[in-house]
Amino acid sequence: MTKDDQNSETNEPDWVDDVVTRALNSSYGSNEELTGKRTGQEENRDEHHVEKPIETYQQYPYPDEDESVNLIEATQENVEEKSQKSVRKAIEWLAVIVGALLVAFLIKTFLMQAYYIPSSSMTPALQVGDRVLVNKLSYEFGEVSRGDLVVFKRIEPETGNETDLIKRVIATEGEILEISNGEIFITERGEKNRKLLVEPYLAEGVTTQGFQFGDLCPESVANTCLVPEDFIFVMGDNRSGSRDSRYFGPVDTDDIIGRAFIRIWPLGSLKLL
User: Fold this and answer.
1) Is 255 in contact with 154 (CB distance < 8 Å)?
2) Residue pair 218/228 in contact by the 8 Å Cβ criterion
3) CA separation (Å) from 184 to 14, 189, 243?
4) Within a 10 A sphere around the Cβ of 226, how many other Cβ atoms?
5) What are the tens digits of pLDDT across the range 223-273?
């Protein structure tokens, strides 16, 4: 290998670097300018990044709609809808209550009604505190029968107050009732022979006392009563503790409220009467 070849091999890298350097200088200038230019670009980019304001905006569902307006309108619609529903529910509940009260009033006035037993005049059939249901249509379609428990209106002569009483029917219109030796005898209409009244609803050993006052019946003798037309004769099952027709005479059928047909309270003593 000659000396020139050795110098050529030694200077080959320098030659390559010189070509690269010249190309760069022709394009960007010197290395210092290139370095400074890059540094300036980085600084400008940093400054531009710092100085650029952060833009904030809302994304609307549609470009031509204002979401805030839609939200306000939707809120107002929801409030109005809830208000309408509340008013509708209130009206419905009011209608239900009024309807229930009306039905209860109609039932109580024309069909049936519950009554509280305040005294012992009907023991043992009914005790103090019992409640019975009274059918007010019983005698609109049927006749009063012996043995029925009827509720009727009674006006007290002393006070003029009207009270409701419950008693048992012992005799009906046209029948002759006679009390003798603690027992009751009935002569039915059109019959001549009297018959002993069998009363299985009385407590054992109970006897019936006679009339407390005279002239309680239009046609009567001692302890005897001919029941007038459209009247009934009533007594309590507790004969010694009941003020009934033996005290105030027969009851006008127009004063009858209805027939007690079932005991509804206490629940354990539910029973047809």
Assistant:
1) yes
2) yes
3) 155, 16, 17
4) 19
5) 899 999 999 999 999 999 999 999 999 999 999 999 999 999 998 888 998
Choose the catalytic residue: 167, 220, 242, 245.
167
- For residue 262, list its beta bridge partners: 133, 272
Which of 121, 220, 242, 245 is catalytic? The answer is 121
Q: What is the DSSP letter of 5?
A: H
pLDDT the model gives residue 15: 56
SS (H, E, C) 199-252: CCCCCCCCCCCCCCCCCCCCECCCCEEECCCCEEEEECCCHHHCCCHHHHCCEE
Tokens 């009206």 locate to: 91
How much of the chain is in helix, strand and coil states, percent to nearest 5? 40, 25, 40
Q: Positive or negative CA dihedral for 99, 102, 108, 111?
A: negative
Structure tokens at 109: 């006035």
pLDDT at 122 over 80: yes
Tell me which residue has tokens 């009024």: 98
pTM (two decimals): 0.65
User: DSSP class of residue 10?
Assistant: H
Amino acid at 208: T
Structure tokens at 103: 């039905």
Residue 151: phi and psi, rounded to 5, are: -105, 130
82 is catalytic: no
Tell me the β-bridge partners of 154. 163
121 an active-site residue?
A: yes
How far is residue 173's CA from residue 256's CA, in Å, rounded to a whole number?
14
The answer to whether 88 touches 80, Cβ cutoff 8 Å, is no
Amino acid at position 13, single letter: P
CA distance 82 to 194: 78
